[in-house]
Write a structure and sequence with these properties.
This protein has five helices and six strands, in the order βαββααβαββα. It is an alpha/beta fold and 159 residues long.
Length: 159
């Protein structure tokens, strides 16, 4: 598996990322959370979705990706999701990346890069490391400008 920064995305993928961006806006507007959203999909069916809930739940692990994985686990009655794709508005951190590896996600599509803590190619290459027995295909840049603008506006308002 590999990191693909020049991926070509289709209308279907744009629809899933739009849903993730809507969840990010919900995090920002309804819970004053950092605007990150995630949607886990397999065979065009949503298995789980989430948005950042760290502040709301007083839980440092309640990142959008983890919330989506937990929802999928409850929905499926399993902790592994082979063949699934996670659409997320921000490059996953190391914690989320390892959860995805353990969950056997097949592919991650993320919007904006995270140059400080990104674990899908920016700072770490956790998802594609040959040290793991499972590697995840990574594609980036889908609706990156919109996601980055939402994050920048949010943090500008907090300063």
């Amino acid at each position: 598996m590999s990191l693909n920064t020049s991926a070509v995305f289709d209308e279907r993928e744009a629809r899933w990322m739009r849903q993730a961006l809507d969840l990010a806006a919900h995090a920002r507007d309804a819970e004053n959370e950092v605007p990150v959203g995630a949607v886990l999909v397999k065979d065009e069916v949503v298995l789980g979705q989430g948005w950042n809930r760290n502040i709301t739940l007083h839980d440092p692990t309640a990142h959008a990706e983890i919330v989506a994985l937990r929802a999928a686990g409850k929905h499926l009655g399993n902790y592994r999701f082979p063949g699934s794709t996670l659409y997320v508005t921000l490059e996953p951190c190391a914690m989320c990346a390892m959860a995805m590896v353990h969950a056997r996600i097949a592919r991650v599509v993320y919007a904006a890069r995270d140059p400080k803590t990104g674990a899908a190619g920016s700072v770490f290459d956790t998802l594609v490391s040959d040290r793991h027995n499972h590697r995840i295909e990574v594609a980036s840049g889908l609706m990156a400008e919109e996601s980055a603008a939402m994050l920048q506006t949010f943090f500008r308002g907090r300063r």
